[in-house]
């Protein structure tokens, strides 16, 4: 790792309040740069070298280049091929082996797994139903499942660049991953067996605009035509996210992507192309996935490679937030005018937030304030402008000062009201304790390790209960942020729906579990016996039902992350979140159902209105 990235990373951690306990992997921080050796308690260092799928074969020859690169892009001159060549100078982009799963709707559904949890555990929700029309689904993202990184004219994103050019920072590249690109027909057939009525996918911007703007790629557009049609054919409603972190490399090299206001027009143009093409079939749109996570990392490799003047690693996350909000606002405006003029069918649009309002560590006013501040910095910084009044929370403005660009009156007007429903990726709730030296001192000191939210980073996650207890059942230690916190879910849903009420209701747009040490299991029966994940889903679904029936929360849908194991960002194929196991060592990339797949199916079949369960 070059010194440049080491020092850059240090600055970013400081500026966007990444907790001291940050590790490689994790929902809030899951796209962080890997440390060369693991510093995670209870784990061994990640294996060196890139575990790539056995389905992969090389499409080019590596020249073994080792210099420290910045991609070159000259507008009007640099081609997609030039950009790929800059990547393949370091290592070849792999392609999937041909498989008989392509276009196949055949699969074996093994008999139900042996019973695990006693039925009295769900006694309190017996007979309760999810409301009519409830969206039950799974979620995915283009980079994480598609593969075919270089196929049919797709241009490179920053996620094609970073892992190839800095292989020490990533456990592999997403060249092939699950090869959804070729195997989606089989994948939908399998999903139907789970009874889902919804599939949340993202489009790859560079499949549609290989250079981010300019020439559109018809082959890329056709691919999503086929995917959307296949979903609908299976009675599965597609929900489409426009941006799940895969910034076009060309735009990053050209003007610093989300560091620049230029991104707003390029994003809007891409969004408009997608609305016009798929607006007849797609009724629910998401502009951005987890902007807070994305922007917290955007000053570093691979999210951005180029700072325009006046932007540095310290203020970059806030310029990103600002530009992204404006990009969201513009795209929503475009969407609504296309609907209004009758070009596309009416639907709904929003963005997906993440994180949570933590449980205060104690009843002390300072701990309660720490929890409120956390909610402002992690949720409110995007949600308040969109859902309430067009402007950032006061805490954020006061603490961040000139780091946070002001939203002009025109921008506020554009952003306010730019969402039809509220979507939150809600994996877990954590705890908040005031920073050790007090919130006031911390908030005024940009070098304080807990600045700007000013909660004590040491007790946020796993060690989050007073008395030295863990806060709840822990996931894989490499996702130390993830705790089965079912006991705090109802309060959270009450908070979200009260703070950001919408006519379109609330969606849990992602939730899921990284089973502890799943990656170290060697026997298939062990891998598919994911008791921790089964428990997690059972617990959360139970709480969702109670939240609807006892708290009156307008919850309209929940999407599990993820349909199968996939490319978990810097952790590559090694961190598993799937309801299905994918054997990446077999060239056919066979999928196998896990216990959790059956658990979700059975619970939802029991609690959905019969017509909402996809038979
Ligand atoms: C989410 C993210 C997904 C996935 C998941 C599990 O934050 O949107 O892409 O990585 O976390 O870590």
Automatic annotation (TrEMBL):
Keyword check for Signal: yes
UniProt-annotated stretches for the region Disordered: 40-72
Superkingdom per UniProt: Eukaryota
Entry's Gene Ontology BP terms: carbohydrate metabolic process
Residues making up the signal peptide according to the UniProt record: 1-17
Keywords: Signal
Protein's name according to its UniProt entry: Beta-glucosidase
Organism this protein belongs to: Umbelopsis ramanniana AG
Lineage: Eukaryota, Fungi, Fungi incertae sedis, Mucoromycota, Mucoromycotina
